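User: Reviewer 2 asked us to show a designed sequence for the structure in our supplementary figure. I'm pasting the structure tokens here. Could you produce the per-position amino acids so we can include them in the response letter?
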């Protein structure tokens, strides 16, 4: 059975809710509670990054898993955290397609 695609909008809303819970915990809860809230935010961000890069091949340069991100409205990027390889597209799927095809953008100087 095919994996259900992640709803980016819902996941971003979940991240914002988790961030608000973390920020509230920092000022009103013990440190261990705030740390758990922070961990939840990081986990959700990682889930989003993985979802946006779903279907991307590992980096051909160093074998690292690719991550995805939305740079701004209409610009997605798939890249490697260990090197400068990155590909862009108007959608996450297009960025993955460009990544898999080796159509990288030049690294910023």
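Assistant: Here is a per-position design you can include in the supplement:
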């Amino acid at each position: 059975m095919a994996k259900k695609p992640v709803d980016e909008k819902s996941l971003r809303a979940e991240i914002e809710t988790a961030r608000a819970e973390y920020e509230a915990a920092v000022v009103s809860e013990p440190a261990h509670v705030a740390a758990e809230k922070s961990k939840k935010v990081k986990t959700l961000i990682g889930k989003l990054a993985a979802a946006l890069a779903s279907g991307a091949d590992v980096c051909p340069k160093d074998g690292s898993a690719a991550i995805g991100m939305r740079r701004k409205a209409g610009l997605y990027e798939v890249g490697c955290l260990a090197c400068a390889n990155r590909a862009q597209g108007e959608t996450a799927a297009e960025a993955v397609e460009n990544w898999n095809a080796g159509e990288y953008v030049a690294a910023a100087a």
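For the response letter, you might also mention the following. The longest helix spans residues 31-52. The longest strand covers residues 67-72.
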